[in-house]
Write a structure and sequence with these properties.
Strand order of the largest sheet: 1-2-3
Number of helices: 3
Order of helices and strands: EHEHEH
Strand content: 25-35%
Structural class: alpha/beta
Largest sheet: 3 strands, parallel
Radius of gyration: 12 Å
Shape: globular
Distance between the termini: 13 Å
């Protein structure tokens, strides 16, 4: 694993804000990984995340088929 900061971002219906969030995180010094855990968004959130993941290998994502809640998603990202 790369040394540095691994940021965990939990999303649900975040299409309008996720690109800005991830772009800002990726611009921060020391961020070696951004882990996005999506809790069953039905908008275009995952499409936006997938596009960013294709352009930056630091972006990793999990698309949950349901919404297990914020704490569960945080733990998924930490694992």
């Amino acid at each position: 694993m790369k040394k540095g900061i691994a940021a965990i971002v939990v999303t649900h219906g975040s299409e309008e804000t996720i690109a800005d969030c991830l772009t800002r995180l990726l611009a921060c010094e020391g961020v070696s990984q951004v882990r996005v855990i999506d809790n069953a968004s039905t908008d275009g959130t995952m499409e936006v995340v997938q596009r960013l993941a294709l352009s930056d290998s630091r972006v990793h994502f999990v698309a949950n088929p349901d919404n297990p809640g914020f704490a569960v998603a945080c733990n998924q990202g930490a694992a």
